[in-house]
């Protein structure tokens, strides 16, 4: 078996791959933002034992954690696109669907990994030493102030190692978006495969690209963990 | 099992209610007819045949593929895991590299790669064997899972105090003997919750095999949607979500209960 990578010199294929990398990075970034928002809101509901919202959060977290993200994505895509909502692009005046494949993919990533993030942040909050919380309370902080200024900042830092795994999982899951025609790396790869029939070589390159992106994300998150570390809390050398 | 029982009761009642509510919201007064339609197609989605007469795919195939992939991944993972803790450093380095590459690559990409890496048919001992999409799917799923199992294996073994190794060595055991008779019997129970988490992940990941053309539940579901019209799409996907939930949720709860009993926290 001989590998032929000569198709890589074609500028059209290079452009497809570069656009794909851009889309994947943008999708992952937006997904991570949404994931953190859902994760923190859900963790607040569970942490304060909010009567109705806490129960709903538990049910939704279990629903999203225990079902395939791919089916969730297909479901969102078919349900939301059948609503037929659209908005008008102010620059061109064209009407673009509000729930395109890209929006649905970001939403599905945010929901699936957000459900995982709820549990991660919650266990981070539980791991905050009780003395620190009691100390804040005895200094006159209210329950919410304690949460906002003491528990959440320390809890988020303590949950960083698990959150790193979750972010890597999100980047890997984002490759599914190609199945609802989002032009990410995976989609570009399938296009190139259809034209060149160099299936194996293209897949090996994509494999490498994803490993590089995931490793880069791990490195960045490790730098962030070290940068925001509070001495005395959590591991000393993450 | 108090807190787990509460979550289990909440989930097993709440999630179906939530999904039925969603169904009612989408279909309005056609909900009854949609439910009848789903009930009619249940044998198709579960076994791939219209009346439970034969097994051609569907949800049962997802379960079967996940079990087969787990068995293969277990064997591969233990070999890779032994490589991770080897004394000979090149073995350790190579195993670590393989493990990290496999763990950091999307399952979808590995599945696609397997689809093209494995030939359509292969000659083994003079017999031509056709490699079906199902076999390719199992191979593609088991590789990343094997890497995860190797990591769990290494973590479990490193959790055993080094004093156990030293005292066994002073009693004259060889390295593999220590692993086999002293360390593994203590480490395996610690690994079980993590292994169950990985199995749940693998089971959920079997939905991806739809790209290889194996007739799993998603493939059957899409065929039904194509023949019955796209208005049924939401209902079919809700039903598939429900099927996956019904299988994966009890495993997740059992894992959490075991974790609390053993006193370990999954990574």
Automatic annotation (TrEMBL), chain A:
Record domain ABC transmembrane type-1: where: 21-218
Location(s) in or outside the cell: Cell inner membrane; Cell membrane
GO biological process assignments: amino acid transport
Transmembrane segments: 20-48, 69-87, 99-118, 167-190, 202-221
InterPro entries, alphabetized: AA_ABC_transptr_permease_3TM, ArtM/GltK/GlnP/TcyL/YhdX-like, MetI-like, MetI-like_sf
Domain of life from the UniProt record: Bacteria
GO cellular component: a single term: ATP-binding cassette (ABC) transporter complex
Keywords: Amino-acid transport, Cell membrane, Membrane, Transmembrane, Transmembrane helix, Transport
Keyword rRNA processing: no
Keyword match Transmembrane: yes
Topology within the bilayer: Multi-pass membrane protein
GO MF terms held by the record: transmembrane transporter activity
Family the UniProt entry places it in: Belongs to the binding-protein-dependent transport system permease family. HisMQ subfamily.
The protein, known as: Amino acid ABC transporter membrane protein 1 (PAAT family)
Organism: Neorhizobium alkalisoli
Native organism taxonomy: Bacteria, Pseudomonadati, Pseudomonadota, Alphaproteobacteria, Hyphomicrobiales
TrEMBL record, chain B:
Keywords: Amino-acid transport, Cell membrane, Membrane, Transmembrane, Transmembrane helix, Transport
TM regions (residue ranges): 7-27, 59-86, 107-131, 202-224, 236-258
Segments forming domain ABC transmembrane type-1: 59-255
Organism domain of life: Bacteria
Membrane disposition: Multi-pass membrane protein
UniProt GO MF annotations: transmembrane transporter activity
GO CC terms: ATP-binding cassette (ABC) transporter complex
One GO process term, biological-process aspect: amino acid transport
Compartmental location: Cell inner membrane; Cell membrane
NCBIfam families in alphabetical order: HEQRo_perm_3TM (TIGR01726)
Entry's family note: Belongs to the binding-protein-dependent transport system permease family. HisMQ subfamily.
Protein name from the UniProt record: Polar amino acid transport system permease protein
Source species of the chain: Neorhizobium alkalisoli
């Amino acid at each position: 078996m001989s590998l032929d990578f000569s198709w890589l010199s074609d500028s059209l294929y290079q452009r497809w791959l570069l656009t794909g990398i851009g889309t994947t990075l943008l999708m992952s970034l937006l997904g991570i933002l949404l994931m953190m928002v859902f994760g923190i809101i859900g963790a607040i509901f569970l942490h304060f034992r909010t009567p109705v919202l806490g129960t709903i959060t538990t049910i939704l977290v279990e629903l999203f954690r225990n079902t395939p993200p791919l089916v969730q994505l297909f479901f969102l895509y078919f349900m939301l696109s059948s609503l037929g909502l659209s908005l008008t692009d102010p620059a061109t005046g064209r009407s673009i669907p509000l729930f395109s494949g890209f929006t649905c993919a970001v939403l599905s990533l945010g929901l699936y990994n957000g459900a995982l993030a709820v549990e991660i942040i919650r266990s981070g909050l539980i791991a905050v030493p009780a003395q620190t919380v009691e100390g804040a309370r005895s200094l006159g902080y209210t329950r919410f102030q304690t949460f906002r200024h003491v528990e959440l900042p320390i809890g988020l830092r303590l949950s960083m190692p698990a959150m790193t795994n979750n972010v890597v999982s999100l980047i890997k899951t984002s490759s599914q978006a190609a199945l609802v025609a989002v032009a990410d790396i995976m989609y570009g790869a399938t296009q190139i495969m259809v034209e060149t029939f160099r299936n194996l070589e293209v897949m090996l390159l994509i494999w490498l690209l994803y490993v590089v992106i995931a490793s880069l994300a791990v490195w960045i998150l490790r730098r962030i963990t070290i940068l925001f570390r509070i001495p005395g809390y959590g591991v000393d050398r993450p | 099992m108090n807190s787990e029982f509460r979550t289990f009761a909440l989930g097993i009642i709440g999630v179906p209610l939530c999904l039925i509510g969603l169904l009612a919201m989408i279909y309005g007064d056609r909900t009854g007819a949609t439910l009848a339609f789903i009930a009619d197609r249940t044998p198709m989605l579960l076994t791939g045949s219209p009346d439970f007469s034969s097994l051609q795919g569907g949800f049962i195939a997802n379960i079967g593929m996940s079990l087969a992939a787990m068995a293969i991944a277990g064997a591969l993972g233990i070999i890779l895991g032994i490589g991770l803790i080897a004394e000979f450093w090149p073995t350790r380095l190579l195993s670590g590299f393989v493990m990290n590459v496999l763990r950091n690559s999307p399952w979808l990409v590995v599945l696609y790669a397997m689809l093209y890496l494995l030939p359509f048919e292969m000659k083994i001992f003079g017999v031509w064997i056709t490699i079906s999409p199902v076999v390719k799917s199992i191979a593609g799923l088991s590789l990343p899972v094997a890497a995860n199992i190797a990591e769990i294996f290494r973590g479990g073994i490193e959790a055993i105090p080094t004093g156990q190794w030293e005292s066994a060595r002073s009693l004259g055991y060889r390295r593999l003997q220590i692993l086999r008779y002293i360390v593994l019997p203590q480490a395996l129970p610690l690994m079980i919750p993590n292994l169950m988490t990985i199995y749940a992940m693998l089971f959920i990941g079997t939905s991806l095999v739809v790209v290889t053309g194996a007739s799993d539940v998603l493939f059957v579901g899409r065929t039904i949607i194509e023949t019955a019209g796209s208005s049924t799409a939401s209902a079919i996907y809700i039903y598939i979500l429900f099927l996956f939930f019904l299988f994966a949720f009890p495993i997740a709860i059992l894992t959490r209960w075991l974790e609390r009993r053993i006193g370990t926290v999954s990574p």
